[in-house]
Write a structure and sequence with these properties.
By secondary structure, this protein is of the alpha+beta class. Helix content is 16%, strand content 46%. It starts with a helix and ends with a strand.
Amino acid sequence: MSGRLFFGGLLSALLMVLAGCATQTSPTPEGVSGSEFVRNGRFALRAEEPNQAPEAVQGGFAWRDANGRLTLDLSNPFGNILARVLVEPGQATLTQANGEVLRATDPDGLVQKAIGQRVPVRDLRQWLRSPLRALPTMQQINRDDQGRIVAFEQNGWTVELTRFDAQGPRLLVLSRAEASQQIVIRLIVDTP
């Protein structure tokens, strides 16, 4: 896979991982409005393949999940929008800075179109919010002294959650290692 294609695929994968969480409903955490969930912050993605230089992308994200509609903007470190994802019931759209648009009926289908492989992304919405409840698909669950889930494995991802506020973790580290590549995604929430 060429570096440019691989890098573009990584950015698309990050978008899909972030956007996929809009498809799963979960109980509204205490202290969060039932109709809106907003998080803003920074992301960093690093991927490595054997015999290739590591690739990385970083920037900011603005997440607004309100009334069944998620809008997610990813920007470069200078604040320019790299891509916008819009997820509504029955439709997911990725619009890149160059105007290219991809559409699918759900975020899982969108990631299939964007990078040519299925990536399970439905659980992130649960991961971002407090309280996080253990799900049957979680393994190797670790809790802190307050009983919060702070680390686990799910769907091939190792997830670490720290720096909690009333809405959820403010630092999420997601990693996935396969024979041909390793991906690490860091999400740092700066403001609710």
